[in-house]
C-alpha cells in the first residue's frame, strides 16, 4: 500500500473508538450503538412510509381485501430475507454500503449504485416532507387560523435537516422514543377508518373477485419496492447493530418490525381510497375523523412519522454517497441532501392521480435496484465466500480501483429483464443480473483482478 493510500485509509478509519452525535464516517464501525431491541424499534419507527399508503391506494380495483393483506405480508417477508442477506457484510465488518460495493463495482464504479440509491431517497424525502408539512399546516389552520403550507414545508424541512445532522445517535433515540406513539396512532387510524367507512367497504372489498395472478405478485413487489432502496444500503444500518445476533433472528427482526406499519398503512390507503377516491392522506383523515382533538393528534402523528422515516431511510443513504464521492463531512452532506429535497417538486406528487404515478416510480427504480442487489449478494456469498479483505476495500490504488465492467454489464442485463416485466421488475432482474455477473467474473479476463 502506498503512503498516500495509507494516509487515506488512516483518515477513513479515524474516530472509531467512540460514537459522538453526528460522528459518522465511512470507516469500519467498531463502536456499535444498537442492541436487538433498539435495532427493532429503529426499523419499526423508520418504516411508517406514506408511500405505502399510496401503494395501497394504487391496487384498488385490482385486489380484494384478503389479496391486498397477503400481498403486503409476502412483500414484508421478502424484505426481511433480503435485508438480512445483504446486510451481512455490514454487520460482520462494520462497513457502509458505499464501501461494500467497491469489491463488485470498483472505487469509481460505486458511483452507479450510489446514484441509483440516492435519487429515490431524495424524491421520497421531498414527498414525505410535503405530506408532513401539510399535516402541520392543517393543525395550524384549525387551531390558530394560520394557513401557510409553504412556510411549514420550509420550516419542517430545516427541522429534519437539524435532526439528521446528529447522525445515528440521534436516529436511535428519535426512533426508539417515537415507536410507541406511532403504533398507538396507527391502530387508532385503522380503527377510525373501519368505523367511518366499514359498511360501504365490507360489501365491495370482501366480495370482489380480484386476482391471484400477475397483478397479485405485482402488488407484492410494490410493497417491497418501497423498501428496495433500503435492501441495497442495509449495511449502513447493520453496521450499527451490536454483534451476536444470528442471521435467522435478524431476518425476523427486519420482517416483524416492518410488517405492522406496512400492513396498517397499506390497508388504510387501500380502504380509504376505495371509499373516497382520494389518495391524499391529509384529506383522508380530515374526512375520517370528526373529533377535533383526535384529528389534531392524528395529523401530528403523520408529521412525526415523516421525520422518523426520512432521517433513517432518506437521509443516510444519499449522505454517505456524497461523503464517498466528494469527501465531505457527514454534517455538510446531510444539509446538502436536505436542500436537494426542495428541488423534487413534491407538491406535484400529491395530486389526485399521484398513486398511479408513484406506482410507476416504484416499479421503475426497482428495475435498477434489483440488479445491483443481486450483484452485491453474488459478490459477497459466491465470489468472496463471505470473506472480505478490508485493506483492499480502502486502498484506492489496489485491485478494486476504477470500474468493474462485469458489474456494469450485469446491471444492464438485469435492467433490460426488469423493464421487460415491469409489474414485477425487482423479481425479474435478480437471476439475469446475478448469473451474468457470476459468469463474467469467473470467465472474463478483464475482471479477474476484481476477484481477489
Any overview of this molecule?
This protein has helices at 3-12, 36-45, 50-58, 65-86, 88-93, 97-100, 102-105, 111-144, 149-164, 167-207, 214-225, 228-232, 235-238, 247-276, 281-288, 292-326, 330-342, 354-383, 390-393, 405-420, 425-443. It is globular and about 65 Å long. It has one domain: Hydantoin permease, CATH 1.10.4160. By secondary structure, it is mainly α. Mean pLDDT is 84; it is low at 1-18. It has 21 helices and no strands. It is 73% helix and 0% strand. Helix 8 (111-144) packs antiparallel against helix 18. The two termini are 15 Å apart.
CATH class: Mainly Alpha
Low-confidence stretches: 1-18
Strand content: under 5%
Helix segment count? 21
By CATH, the superfamily comes out as Hydantoin permease
Task: Please compute the radius of gyration using only Cα atoms.
Answer: 22 Å
Order of helices and strands: HHHHHHHHHHHHHHHHHHHHH
The largest sheet, given as strand count, sense and whether it forms a barrel, is:
none
- CATH topology-level name: Hydantoin permease
Which CATH architecture is right? Answer: Orthogonal Bundle
Number of domains: 1
SS-based structural class?
mainly alpha
Mean pLDDT: 84
Helix content: over 70%
Could you give the count of β-strands?
0
Terminal Cα separation, in Å?
15 Å
Query: Quick one: overall form?
Result: globular
Amino acid at each position: 500500500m502506498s503512503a498516500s493510500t495509507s494516509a487515506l485509509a488512516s483518515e477513513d478509519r479515524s474516530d472509531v473508538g467512540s460514537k459522538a452525535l453526528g460522528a459518522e464516517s465511512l470507516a469500519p464501525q467498531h463502536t456499535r450503538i444498537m442492541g436487538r431491541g433498539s435495532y427493532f424499534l429503529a426499523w419499526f419507527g423508520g418504516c411508517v412510509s406514506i408511500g405505502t399508503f399510496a401503494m395501497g391506494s394504487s391496487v384498488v380495483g385490482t385486489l380484494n381485501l384478503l389479496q391486498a393483506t397477503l400481498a403486503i405480508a409476502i412483500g414484508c417477508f421478502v424484505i426481511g430475507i433480503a435485508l438480512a442477506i445483504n446486510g451481512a457484510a455490514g454487520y460482520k465488518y462494520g462497513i457502509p454500503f458505499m464501501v461494500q460495493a467497491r469489491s463488485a463495482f470498483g472505487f469509481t464504479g460505486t458511483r452507479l449504485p450510489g446514484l441509483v440509491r440516492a435519487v429515490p431517497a431524495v424524491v421520497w424525502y421531498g414527498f414525505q416532507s410535503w405530506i408532513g408539512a401539510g399535516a402541520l399546516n392543517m393543525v395550524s389552520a384549525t387551531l390558530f387560523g394560520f394557513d401557510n403550507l409553504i412556510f411549514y414545508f420550509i420550516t419542517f424541512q430545516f427541522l429534519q435537516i437539524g435532526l439528521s445532522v446528529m447522525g445515528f445517535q440521534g436516529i436511535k433515540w428519535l426512533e426508539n422514543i417515537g415507536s410507541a406513539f406511532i403504533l398507538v396512532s396507527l391502530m387508532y387510524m385503522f380503527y377510525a377508518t373501519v368505523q367511518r367507512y366499514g359498511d360501504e367497504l365490507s360489501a365491495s372489498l370482501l366480495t370482489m373477485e380480484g386476482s391471484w395472478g400477475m397483478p397479485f405478485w405485482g402488488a407484492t413487489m410494490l410493497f417491497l419496492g418501497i423498501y428496495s432502496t433500503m435492501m441495497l444500503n442495509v449495511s449502513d444500518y447493520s453496521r450499527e447493530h451490536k454483534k451476536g445476533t444470528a442471521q435467522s433472528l435478524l431476518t425476523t427482526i427486519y420482517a416483524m418490525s416492518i410488517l405492522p406499519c406496512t400492513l396498517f398503512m397499506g390497508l388504510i390507503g387501500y380502504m380509504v381510497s376505495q371509499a373516497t377516491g382520494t389518495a391524499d392522506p391529509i384529506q383522508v383523515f380530515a374526512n375520517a375523523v370528526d373529533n377535533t382533538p383526535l384529528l389534531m393528534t392524528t395529523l401530528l402523528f403523520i408529521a412525526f412519522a415523516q421525520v422518523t422515516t426520512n432521517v433513517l431511510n432518506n437521509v443516510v443513504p444519499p449522505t454517505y454517497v456524497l461523503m464517498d464521492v466528494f469527501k465531505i463531512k457527514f454534517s455538510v452532506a446531510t444539509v446538502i441532501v436536505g436542500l436537494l429535497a426542495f428541488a423534487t417538486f413534491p407538491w406535484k406528487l400529491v395530486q389526485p392521480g399521484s398513486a398511479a404515478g408513484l406506482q410507476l416510480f416504484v416499479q421503475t427504480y426497482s428495475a435498477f435496484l434489483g440488479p445491483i442487489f443481486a450483484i452485491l449478494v453474488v459478490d459477497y456469498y459466491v465470489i468472496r465466500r463471505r470473506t472480505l479483505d478490508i485493506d483492499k476495500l480502502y486502498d484506492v490504488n489496489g485491485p478494486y480501483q476504477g470500474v468493474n465492467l462485469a458489474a456494469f454489464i450485469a446491471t444492464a442485463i438485469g435492467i433490460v429483464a426488469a423493464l421487460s416485466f415491469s409489474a414485477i421488475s425487482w423479481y425479474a432482474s435478480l437471476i439475469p443480473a446475478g448469473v451474468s455477473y457470476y459468469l463474467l467474473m469467473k470467465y472474463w479476463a478483464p475482471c479477474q483482478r476484481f476477484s481477489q
